[in-house]
Write a structure and sequence with these properties.
By secondary structure, the chain is mainly α. It contains 7 helices and no strands. α3 packs antiparallel against α7 and α4 packs antiparallel against α5. The mean pLDDT is 77.
């Protein structure tokens, strides 16, 4: 299947704008109601935005006409971008985990669960919509960059669902005799999400590095083959 360059660009641009919207919403609301996990969600969207811009630049570079295309190994660009994205997301998960542990040690965080639940519903619906669009249209685009974007939106979707479930649980706790434990719900959610989602970017990075190693082996084999032909001649 051939690569649909025009559709690839449209999907990457859409992902950029949507990630910006969720980043602004998440970070602003999270700071307002004092929720570490919503800030994490917004920060993930902000990181997604930055990484999408990297993907857009990579896609533009890959498809840019060149007078001497053989001088630059274009096949390495896409796996390098995907590996970079995986490493950045992994780093963000590690930082979030450390922040959540610190919050628990400091006595938890008191959060307005009512407002958080409303945000959670909106966030989940938006992320599901973005993921569905990336998967459905991404098949026609036949692009590894769009596939990586779909994985990012899948992670954001599950993060949003986990956040919403966590706030439901926190709300229930606040109405019982165990209300004193409700302040730990927010950082505990961050810890769970960070541990779970570090697996996805690590897999992305591993596969991209494998691809780079395979390309290197093929190039090395090709050069050795050419040398043997030259020596025979």
């Amino acid at each position: 299947m051939t690569r649909n360059i025009q559709l690839e660009r449209k999907l990457l641009h859409f992902s950029t704008l949507f990630a910006l919207l969720f980043a602004v919403m998440g970070i602003s609301l999270g700071a307002w109601i004092g929720s570490l996990v919503i800030i994490f969600d917004g920060a993930y969207s902000l990181v997604s935005l930055f990484l999408t811009l990297v993907s857009v630049a990579a896609a533009s570079y890959i498809h840019k006409p060149r007078k001497h295309p053989s001088a630059i190994n274009i096949t390495k660009v896409e796996p390098m971008v995907i590996a970079f994205k995986g490493l950045v997301i992994t780093l963000m998960c590690c930082i979030s985990f450390a922040s959540a542990v610190e919050a628990i040690l400091n006595g938890g965080r008191d959060v307005n669960t009512g407002v958080a639940l409303i945000f959670g519903v909106i966030n989940v619906l938006g992320c599901i919509g973005a993921y569905w669009l990336m998967v459905k249209k991404g098949k026609r685009a036949n692009s590894g960059l769009v596939d990586a974007e779909a994985k990012q939106w899948l992670m954001d979707t599950v993060i949003s669902i986990a956040v919403m479930i966590g706030f439901v649980f926190a709300k229930i706790l606040s109405l019982t005799e165990y209300q004193s434990y409700a302040v730990y719900a927010d950082p505990v959610m961050v810890i769970i999400v960070s541990i779970y989602f570090i697996i996805v970017p690590l897999k992305m990075t591993y596969k991209a590095i494998q691809q780079l190693a395979l390309d290197k082996q093929l190039v090395s084999h090709g050069n050795n083959h050419d040398d043997s032909i030259s020596s025979t001649s």
